[in-house]
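hey so u asked for the seq, here:
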Amino acid sequence: MPSGLHPDADHLHPTDDLPDHHSLAAQIRAIFETGFGQLLQDLFSRIDDELFKLADRADNSGLQTLYFDAMRQIRRDQAGMRSRCLREILEAEEHFWNPADTPSAQPEDSGNPGLTLLENDVLEIELAVTHAAQKANLLFQDTLGPFELRLAALKGLQGPPLPPHPFTPEALAHAFAASLTGQPVDIRVTLLILKLFDRHVLCQMGTTYRQMNQLLADHGVLPDASLVFKAKTSTMPEQHRPSSAAHVREDDSAEQLSDLLHLLDLWKRQAGNDASQTDGQHFDPGEVVGALSLLQQSASALASGEWRPGAPVPRLKQSLVEQLTGFCPDGELRRLGRFEEDVIDMVSMIFDFILEDRNLPDPVKALIARLQIPVVKVAIIERSFLAKKTHPLRALLNALAQAGVGLEPDDRKDRIVLKKIEEVVYRILTEFDEDTRIFAELLEDFSAFIEGERKGVKAMEERTRQAAISQERLTLAKRAAAVEITARIEKRPLPPALVSLLLNAWKDVLVIAHLRREKDSTDWDEALAIMDRLIDWADAHDAEPRRADAGTGEPEAIRAARERLENIAFDPGQLHAFFKDLELWHLSRGNLGPTPAPANATVEPCEIEDILIEGMEDAQPAAQSAPAINESFVEQARNLCAGDWVEFCDGPALPFRAKLLLKSRFTSRYVFVNRRGMKLREIGLHELASGLAANTIRLIAGANEPLLDRALNAVVDTLACSTEQSHASATS
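ran it, structure tokens below
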């Protein structure tokens, strides 16, 4: 079955119609030797610089010696390595054109088949080579596809299968890896060298591939191959498409990305920035990624605090085009490809949103803003990134932002988290080239750090929560005691001695009994009953003679009240004084008959409430003096949930952020804590609503929503709204 990537027979010119392949093959070889040879020469300078930097940063003498020895070894043998690499590629090229004249190499029989020959180091090298080749195939697929078709036509092949040509990324990567064989260097150095080869050679081959491809087209070898290739790849069944792009379909990411870019295209057209022209040469994706890597290196050298809110943000597209243009030969004009330009525009809009987001503290914004270039690179290398919520880089950016929501840069412990965020950003800028696996590693490390911190935070939050709940239970108990005492005082006039006892002593018995109510409800009922018997006793007209010398004649109500007060360790001196006053009053009442209590002895219920609550309502403004608050702000305060963040701007100090830890259903009190779980503020519903209305308390909306999701949604809303408005204006 045809693969769909290869031309049908009627698309190929007969061999007789094509120029002599020997002449064209020689010209192709010359282009390759010039381009690849120069990249290879530049590579060894970069290897030398990188090994020197690693040796300089090594944290022990053994590692430093390893890198210095490797640097000296590579310096000594770099000419031989270049020669061996080129020789293997050119021998394969000769065999490609003249297979009968060059004997194929026979593999050595080791006596052990398959993977048993491969040790761990060899497997790691093979994985690195395969990854580099796959990435280059994806970056240059628009050039390599037509080039393969033209080489096949030049050889006179009338259809598939096509033999692999010697200039494929796989062939180049394997040839270079083979040139390293026998070098007495550590596997870490070998993998580093392969990584640099991937970045500075394979990903820079776009110009060379394009020149070889254009040479064949200019000489009449399938001049429409590019159109044939694009048509074939766009209509072939999914299972026949290149595996390097198969992951784009995962989770419908391709459709979502297409919708995003289509919306961006409509917005550009209506804004007069139509970039749909297809004429002229484009920079290859590999060249774009390479130029972005150079810009990223410059960004990594910046101080972490260089960006400040309000300062102009450098426009990435302009810097990138200037960087790419500097690599072009004099007179050659090229432009960014449509996809690359759209990705840069989309990512720029996302980062514009991030920089304007009031949810993030300025230092966190400054750090995340420096990741714009790596994000663009990932969006070009892995096209599913923008539409795939589970991508490790998206998850990492969301985690960094979430960790920074409540940070106070002046707080010593918060600076530890800020330092960790800075460390992650620095590692991305200095270590990420095109291997996106680094983001999963960084995400795992950062998540472990945050989880370790969260354990202490959860413990502190639980302590704060329990303290707030205990305070709430105490408040409810005091209110319950106030209600019961007030009800009895309102029912009948009571003597000052008894009122004083209830207010200053028995209220403590009731409060403690109420706190124990969940465990023993009879304790509360008994305390109320004793209070009622005490009042009835004091109100009796026919009392028996008071207390005998031994105390055996003490009334039951007095005895029960005394025992309960002693059980709660009430002050003995005060206790004796209260009962002495009460006894004297009752004796005088028994001798003189019932007399009304003095007018000034009556205590109003509202005063009792104030005394028992002990100022718990001081924080709440009096209802009659409070200004009217719009009901929407009251509703907003009621709808606040545990975990929501707010910013307090109501004091002379700088604004600070706090998270709602607890909202009482009974007392309408709101307890706010900092990101470490320590209590910062406790206010009532009325005060919270007033602050929202006066803008002295600001809700941090969406603080718990992933940053990239919010940013993308905002960008989509902006594009869609602008498009709809333009359409409405055009039709009105």
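The mean pLDDT is 77. The longest helix spans residues 437-491.
lmk if thats what u needed
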